[in-house]
Amino acid sequence: xxxxxxxxxxxxxxxxxxxxxxxxxxxxxxxxxxxxxxxxxxxxxxxxxxxxxxxxxxxxxxxxxxxxxxxxxxxxxxxxxxxxxxxxxxxxxxxxxxxxxxxxxxxxxxxxxxxxxxxxxxxxxxxxxxxxxxxxxxxxxxxxxxxxxxxxxxxxxxxxxxxxxxxxxxxxxxxxxxxxxxxxxxxxxxxxxxxxxxxxxxxxxxxxxxxxxxxxxxxxxxxxxxxxxxxxxxxxxxxxxxxxxxxxxxxxxxxxxxxxxxxxxxxxxxxxxxxxxxxxxxxxxxxxxxxxxxxxxxxxxxxxxxxxxxxxxxxxxx
Length: 318
Hints:
- The chain contains 14 helices and two strands; from the N terminus they run H-H-H-H-E-E-H-H-H-H-H-H-H-H-H-H.
- The chain has 318 residues and is an all-alpha fold.
- A two-stranded antiparallel sheet has the order 1-2.
- The chain is globular, with a radius of gyration of 19 Å.
């Protein structure tokens, strides 16, 4: 199957997944009753959930691609490197101190940026980043920041914080449509900016010395891309909480499908991540109705085995 056929197949699967996610859920809607007032409002909410799933999947997966390329580590992604937890902590601190909702994305961005800088410096030894050290540092920082989030939520007098378990496990319920619009714009612009650096990512993936010989300012590109991924991750955490392993699984699967050229990998990964997130959200709503399982639980159940397999494979290669 050539690449065009593969892309068409992904589009078809995505279309089917979107249709299923809109029509199915904890509340079953007969086809003949779709246009009723009550069902119309349910369908509208499901459409917004699908849009958020597409945006979140694209942002997290492309962020994973970037981090894997610039850190030259196949296991790098926002969740495992503590970026998501840092963003979550920044947002929770913002809420705790009474920061206006409009400034929460900025607080989350600062948290995400500081967390990835912390992980990077913890893993650096003699100006080299060891794979095991990077993952270990990321997991430790992620667990520590998540614990701080739980602590702040537990002691906060703000009752609304006590119910925000989705900060830790993720949710695609849309509470603020304006925030969804802002986050969507940020993620789309961020992905567009990353795509402009596709050729730079290709070069950096081969090695920093090779990239430098090609005239690329490696350090400048890395700093720009880390800031963009931190901004994307922070924006998504503000609206859907912490969702893990999307940036790990999908890029690896798509590399097997289309190769490592980022000009082809990024668009295909966006499609695949959309399929994955829409399908996971649908599962979260239909597995145990009328209760909804946090989507982060499903992505973790699917992603943890993939992480273990990749870790074992990398150890064998070494």
